[in-house]
Design goal:
about 525 residues, alpha/beta, Hypothetical protein af1432, 3 domains, six-stranded mixed beta sheet, five-stranded mixed beta sheet, 15 strands, about 15% strand, disordered C terminus
Length: about 525
């Protein structure tokens, strides 16, 4: 059998994603080279392979004008490896994208020619404007409602681009990558600040960021986020969506700028090979904050590579909710029975007549994910489901949303939130939304107990508003046989959680043997 050829089409025209066809992006940056292979090219692709090599292609380009010999040798060796892996994984389309160092170096064209000869695939050396555009598209794919400025700090350059209402605005690219500006030497901080600020002057629109959000992209900035999370004992080890207020982060950045290389390498969460870049990256971020005055920073794991995929989607695909798309795919692969999330959602929503749009979509996702841990040992289903949902590698949710989903799923399986891991994160959710997540979890627990997980049975039952602010669980004649001791306990628990009585009734309107009121 011959190996598949990669698509040779140039450009990134829109297309409909095809399920089961893997796609990849080979990102040749100034510091790192990374291959990411995704399971498909749709609205919420899941990485099935993600590996980087720190080759330092941009090291010394400012001084010599050329890519370093050692960096090129390392890059070619690692790209040969990535090329073989992509072919073995039967990647149907591969974007090979080179950025700042390659486009700026005098020997960049020669390096590209050799690279293309070796891998048999065109290399797209993109401009700074295109790099900014793709990074912003990547952020929009991860945060559809982003409103602020995307800042993508690579090894050689910084790209800034305004985003709002899912549109891209003013943008600028400037040579402020750590490999380009060098180390922040002791006693020279003032000179570095003046140099960075002079480059930021090329983005006179940056003060429009005031009171909005800076979306920080790039390996060095993600390392800073990881270090800050460790220092703050933050309970979720997910960089994407990590949010820090401007003043708190600026103070922390100031301490990093004054930290020696040796000390930076010893900071928990910072890799040894990223350590050298941290003080310079911290100073650039600090100056962007000072100039733009955002309300805070959201760190994004989505950037140029995800932007390459998003750029290919049709408008109809882009409009889809990435969280719901991912949850639907997970449900399809993991549920015991054909998933009927709309049936569950329609069954339980009479309990929550005033849902906010954001919570409504999270509850839909919970309905889809409600059977995700069925194959685990019964003693660990709650914990497994909680941790899996808390750490899902999907877009379209912030950290508070993750906690909402995880708590709801935990209650669905075990009926409480006494898991130590849950106690560690529940403070990220305000009390009202925490209570809602628990209530939804109890509703799911009742629904899946009542139906045995075969949720089509729920269509024979209804939850309806009743007297005195309570609710009626109405069952058809045949559905009355679904009742039992376990169901009674689930009804009582849900009643207690929502603080309202729930009466079990036959569809004639007459009450069954008993009604259930909240426990005192």
């Amino acid at each position: 059998m011959t190996e598949p050829n990669f698509s040779q089409s140039e450009g990134r025209g829109t297309r409909e994603p095809v399920r089961g066809q893997r796609v990849g992006v080979l990102d040749i940056g100034s510091n790192s080279i990374r291959l990411v292979v995704y399971d498909h090219a749709g609205r919420s692709p899941i990485p099935v392979f993600n590996e980087k090599a720190l080759c330092g292609l941009g090291r010394g380009v400012t001084d010599t004008g050329n890519l370093p010999v050692e960096g090129m040798a390392s890059a070619l060796m690692n790209i040969d490896r990535f090329n073989q892996i992509a072919r073995a994984m039967r990647v149907r389309h591969l974007d090979v994208v080179a950025t700042s160092a390659v486009r700026d170096a005098a020997n960049g064209p020669g390096f590209v020619a050799e690279l293309e000869r070796r891998i048999g695939h065109p290399v797209d050396v993109i401009s700074g404007d295109e790099e900014a555009r793709l990074s912003a598209l990547g952020v929009l794919s991860g945060f559809p409602d982003a409103n602020g400025v995307v800042g993508d700090l690579g090894g050689g350059s910084l790209e800034l681009i305004d985003v709002s209402d899912r549109r891209l605005g003013a943008h600028a690219t400037m040579p402020l990558g750590p490999l380009r500006i060098g180390d922040v030497a002791r006693g020279q901080r003032r000179r570095f600040v003046a140099m960075i600020d002079a480059h930021l002057d090329s983005a006179p629109w940056l003060p429009n960021l005031a009171g909005r959000t800076l979306y920080a992209v790039g390996g060095a900035w993600r390392s800073i986020a990881r270090a800050h999370m460790t220092q703050a004992s933050y309970p979720i080890e997910v960089i994407h969506g990590y949010t820090v207020g401007r003043d708190a982060l600026s103070d922390y950045l100031g301490s990093l700028v004054q930290t020696s290389k040796k000390s930076v390498r010893s900071i928990p969460g910072v890799s040894r090979r990223r350590g050298d870049a941290i003080p310079s990256a911290a100073l650039v971020l600090q100056r962007v904050l000072a100039r733009g005055q955002p309300s805070g920073v959201v760190f994004s794991a989505f950037g140029l590579r995800e932007g390459c995929l998003y750029d290919r989607l049709t408008d109809a695909e882009r409009a889809k909710d990435p969280l719901l798309m991912a949850a639907e795919e997970i449900a399809r692969e993991t549920n015991r029975f054909a998933p009927h999330p709309e049936t569950i959602y329609g069954w339980l929503t009479p309990l929550f007549p005033t849902l906010q749009e954001q919570d409504a979509r999270l509850i839909r996702a919970l309905c889809m994910l409600s059977d995700v841990a069925w194959s685990e040992h019964p003693s660990y289903r709650g914990e497994h489901g909680f941790l899996r949902v808390l750490r899902l590698p999907v877009a379209g949710l912030d950290h508070a949303d993750r906690v909402f989903l995880a708590l709801g799923l935990l209650v669905r399986y075990v009926g409480h939130t006494d898991l130590p891991a849950a106690k560690a994160v529940e403070g990220l959710l305000d009390p009202a939304r925490r209570a809602l997540a628990i209530q939804v979890g109890h509703a799911l627990r009742l629904a899946l107990t009542l139906s045995g997980g075969a949720t089509t049975l729920l269509r024979r039952t209804r939850l309806r508003p009743g007297a005195d602010g309570g609710f009626n669980l109405v069952l058809s004649g045949e559905a009355l046989s679904l009742l039992g001791d376990v169901v009674d306990r689930r009804v009582a628990a849900l009643s207690s959680a929502i603080g309202a009585p729930i009466a079990v009734q036959a569809n004639t309107g007459r009450r069954a043997a008993s009604s259930v009121r909240p426990r005192s």
